[in-house]
User: Fold this.
Amino acid sequence: MKPKYDIRNALRLHRVKAGDMTQQELADRVGATRQTIMSIEKGRYNPSVGLALRIAKVLGASIEELFELEEEEGDRDG
Amino acid sequence: MKPKYDIRNALRLHRVKAGDMTQQELADRVGATRQTIMSIEKGRYNPSVGLALRIAKVLGASIEELFELEEEEGDRDG
DNA sequence: CGCGGTAGTAAAATAAACTTTACATTTTGT
DNA sequence: ACAAAATGTAAAGTTTATTTTACTACCGCG
Assistant:
């Protein structure tokens, strides 16, 4: 079952920009596991806003820069 | 078990600001239930960044305005 | 080639988000 | 006071995030 709200993320881009940090390093700094970072980078799920906030802080970016709503065409009910 | 990283939110404030929308109205517009909105407003858990993004869009605010990391003093390992 | 570090994948288990339903309390309008 | 709408709480259930563990592939280095 795919998530209700798809998001696109530029995590990897910003991770590299922020000093070419490794996944493990980022994971440590935000208090998550490498697999969690992996899964987010790969778009397998969207993190909690708490984790997203911490990632944004470490990467020196805004959440809006990091994560973006997928525009789903023709699938909206409004 | 309380969440690992507490967040503070100004959801209610912005909900009122954005035309005094009811919880139900906001819930409908973001595709969630009223209870979900309630729980977020009451700080019972932090939503996914996907839902947070949709809320921010509807309320015309940034995620950073809506949700803020709780600064926990003396609980960091680095 | 063998080694260490990084990245990709996956399965099982646990924690947390989110839904559904139901009921109590407060607020608002008449 | 009464009714209706909005808010608050809660329990049980489903789905998704996150962890833990483990294995594979790629790359630079000796």
Remarks:
- Residues 49-59 of chain A form the longest helix (11 residues).
- Chain A has five helices and two strands.
- Confidence is low (pLDDT under 50) at residues 73-78 of chain A.
- The interface with chain B takes residues 3-7, 29, 31, 46-54, 57, 62-64, 67-69, 78 of chain A (CB under 8 Å).
